[in-house]
Amino acid sequence: MFAKLKEHPAVGKLIAQYDHLPKRDQQALAVLVVAIVLAVLYFGIWRPAAGFHERAESSRENAEALLDWMSANRPAIQSLAQSGNQRTTSSQISDGRALMSTVTRSAGESGLSLNRFEPSGEKAIRVWLENVPFQSIAAWIERLDEEFGIVVDQASFDRQDNPGIVSVRLTLSI
């Protein structure tokens, strides 16, 4: 294989130039080539492989710790999951009027002003809010779900010119 390589004209020319160099320059060039080869092996192969190995090991350890924690807390997790399915709210909403009242009151408490709202069937309401902070809307929707069991059936968010400001159309239901 090396014989074929040496027969190549460009390689032959490089070998001829190397042979014409003084002995000290030949030794310096050999040391430089070895240093470059070692650098390529270390930075191109060894270091990336070692970094990948460390990240994989860390990820595995984190997964094991999570599994251990989940196994140790299995009864508590299962009871939370079951209690989440049987939602109990401080005020049970039974009809559209109570829903409308709850939604408008909680919006005001959250610092939001409903531009428009209307019933949508017996247990749903459509609301419109214009130019409000997205974070306020998200917190309000979460509060409606957690405290009253009111969920979003449909949502449409329109981004405004100011960052973080949206116009929203929601259909909320019990």
Q: Helix/strand/pairing class, anyone?
A: alpha+beta
Largest sheet: 4 strands, antiparallel
Please report the number of helical segments: 6
Q: Percentage of helical residues?
A: 55-70%
**Strand order of the biggest β-sheet:** 1-2-4-3
Estimated radius of gyration: 35 Å
Low-confidence stretches: none
Question: Can you tell me the overall shape?
Answer: elongated
* Tally of individual domains: 2
SSE order: HHHHHEEHEE
Distance between the termini: 78 Å
What's the CATH architecture of the largest domain? 2-Layer Sandwich
At CATH level 3, the topology of the largest domain is Gyrase A, domain 2
Strand percentage lies at 15-25%
CATH superfamily of the largest domain: General secretion pathway protein M, EpsM
The number of E-state strands comes to 4
Would you state the CATH class of the largest domain? Alpha Beta
Residue-averaged pLDDT: 85
Q: How would you characterize this protein structure?
A:
Keywords: Cell inner membrane, Cell membrane, Membrane, Protein transport, Transmembrane, Transmembrane helix, Transport. The model has no long low-confidence stretch (mean pLDDT 85). Strands 1-2-4-3 form a four-stranded antiparallel β-sheet. 63% of the residues lie in helices and 18% in strands. The longest helix is centred in the first third of the chain and has 50 residues. The chain is an alpha+beta fold. The chain has two domains: 76 residues; 78 residues, Gyrase A, domain 2 (2-Layer Sandwich).
